[in-house]
């Protein structure tokens, strides 16, 4: 039985390795190679994206939008203090597997809290809700290594709220060079 199961998994991997997966049983998602999970940027509802405490000259699109986020000279910066609160709605329900948060060594984010399907959050009430997942970013993460999330907590996601609580050095400005979300639809 074990060999048959392994052959079935290999077949499924080969079958779906060339094409995007429209609907694939979530049970198998953990077995899928990272290249089969897609960048969810195309599923973001850009008209509803918000970011609190962003600098007017260094705003969220610098870190989130294709083309901008690949340019290390552009970044998202906090304004009044080190915290940032982002709200990202999606055009359809998604399943979030991992996130990339890239930033400079000193001013890059440190503690990142993620909330699934929590709307209308602000700095006054963000700590009233338990996060769906919390990541403490390492230097490898700041260079682009994905943070694998608690996948069961990010099923049926209509919106994602990202709270960057602090940065690596404790300075007043947090800089984010890239945010990328990976999963399936």
TrEMBL record:
<dbReference type="GO" id="GO:0005737">
    <property type="term" value="C:cytoplasm"/>
</dbReference>
<dbReference type="InterPro" id="IPR045099">
    <property type="entry name" value="PITH1-like"/>
</dbReference>
<protein>
    <recommendedName>
        <fullName>PITH domain-containing protein</fullName>
    </recommendedName>
</protein>
<dbReference type="InterPro" id="IPR010400">
    <property type="entry name" value="PITH_dom"/>
</dbReference>
<dbReference type="Pfam" id="PF06201">
    <property type="entry name" value="PITH"/>
</dbReference>
<comment type="similarity">
    <text>Belongs to the PITHD1 family.</text>
</comment>
<feature type="domain" description="PITH">
    <location>
        <begin position="29"/>
        <end position="185"/>
    </location>
</feature>
<dbReference type="InterPro" id="IPR037047">
    <property type="entry name" value="PITH_dom_sf"/>
</dbReference>
<dbReference type="InterPro" id="IPR008979">
    <property type="entry name" value="Galactose-bd-like_sf"/>
</dbReference>
């Amino acid at each position: 039985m074990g060999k048959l199961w392994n052959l079935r998994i290999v077949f499924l991997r080969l079958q779906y390795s060339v094409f995007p997966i429209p609907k694939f049983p979530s049970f198998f998602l953990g077995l899928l190679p990272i290249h089969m999970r897609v960048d969810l940027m195309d599923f973001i509802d850009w008209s509803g994206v918000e970011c609190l405490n962003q600098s007017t000259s260094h705003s969220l699109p610098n870190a989130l939008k294709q083309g901008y986020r690949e340019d290390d000279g552009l970044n998202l910066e906090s304004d009044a203090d080190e915290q940032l609160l982002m709200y990202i709605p999606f055009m359809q329900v998604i399943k979030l597997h991992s996130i990339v948060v890239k930033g400079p060594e000193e001013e890059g984010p440190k503690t990142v809290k993620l909330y699934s399907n929590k709307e209308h959050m602000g700095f006054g009430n963000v700590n009233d809700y338990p996060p769906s997942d919390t990541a403490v970013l390492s230097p490898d993460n700041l260079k682009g290594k994905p943070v694998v999330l608690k996948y069961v907590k990010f099923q049926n996601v209509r919106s994602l709220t990202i709270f960057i609580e602090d940065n690596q050095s404790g300075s007043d400005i947090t800089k984010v060079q890239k945010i990328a979300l990976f999963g399936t639809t």
